[in-house]
Design a protein that fits this description.
2 strands; 17 helices; mainly alpha; Growth Hormone, Chain: A; single chain; 2 domains; globular
Amino acid sequence: MPRRQMNQKIAVSVVFVAAMFMNIMDTTIVNVALPTIGKQFHVAADSVDTVAIGYLVSLAVFIPVSGWLGDRLGPRRVLLSSVVVFTLASALCGLAQNLGQLVAFRVLQGVGGGLMVPVGMAMLFRIFPPEERVRASSILIVPTALAPALGPVLGGLFVTEVSWRWVFYVNLPIGVMALVFGLLFLASPKSERAGRLDVAGFLLSGAGLGLVMYGVSEGPFKGWGRPEIVVTLVAGALLLAGMVWVELRSGDPLIDLRLFRDSLFRTANIVMALGAVSFLGVLFIVALFFQDGLGQSALSSGLSTFPEAIGVMIGSQVVTRALYPNLGPRRTMFTGLLVLSLALALMSLVDTTGELWWMRGLMFFVGYGMAHVFTSAQAAGFATISGPDTARASTVFNALRQLGGAVGVAVLSTVVAEIGPVSRVGGRLVPHLTAYHATFLTAAAISLVAAGAALRVDDRAAAHTMVRRGARPASARPAEEMAGSRA
């Protein structure tokens, strides 16, 4: 079948969902295998962490240039090439014979991951008109919800029953199928004008984000007062400040910070970033709570976390079919964040293995509440972004989401470390569940801050996206016209 005969909404959705699924799952599935990898390569725990850190830093470095590359070389070419890089790097990770090789291949994996998600998202929002953006956002929910929950389950199975190498090999069939499908059915959309590469912007943003990502990822475990952490964070912050100064004065910036003049885009990004801090931080901590706090196995921990994915997928259907078209993004996100905050606060009351089913039910509502944010922020955030700006808006959106997740893990891990994950009772060390309870309350507080930010969303600017499924919009202005309403 010639590729142009397939509906491009379907073609782009299939390839993007597969790419995003691999990218998101890769983080959680690899974390489960790190202790086993350390033992096989005979390295200390603080050294094997470079397997995870190398990937995150590489993502941070290459996300900023993704929008420019998509416009310069064509989004189809960049998306499929990045899938090839990610899949090949996954195979090489599985074949690695020492820690150095594995870290190098993980950095290569991050190159593919840093490019494919922003470029794929830009293609998705260009192919779906504004009145169908909620539908497009519901497509994004699948990998966003399923991947982080499925990762620990598969990781536990592979490490226990097969080999840690399969946490990387699992990407191969997904990547190959996405590539073949894309080659057969994905059309080459018209490329936007890319202009010259903003070298200064790339160096400053890549180095700055990379250093900050390293600092916030290692700070909770090595200590925030360690000189290497302090120097890394200060250097990263200075480079990012320099990036802001340079980009605001550039006629053709790599990261178009002027997009934040659009009040709807700005507020949606703030809500999404704060939501990522709370949600992704909790997904990391709750695995430790199940395993270190309640003594569950890695597989049992993954299965207990999985209701979150069910909650997100059910919640996304409720949002797209009923809430968003009738209530708009402001009230939908606010309601979801209140549900998320309540569920997280109630988690602080769980302190025995006998309450596991109660905890699993709360995980469902964590996902259900966050679905309101994922779907609404993505639909409303791009509602007033013009076609030519979509790629660079996607770059900003994904960079903030990625940084928000890293900050969430750092903040909540620091809370656990400061209170202490263990305490001495009767001369022996036992899990100190108060530390985990404090993290859940901290995440709940962050969610409430996000809810306050959601109240600043202007539903009128996103009105043309509030269309019921199957209904024709009465007056849907294109994004190019809406862009003129930026505040």
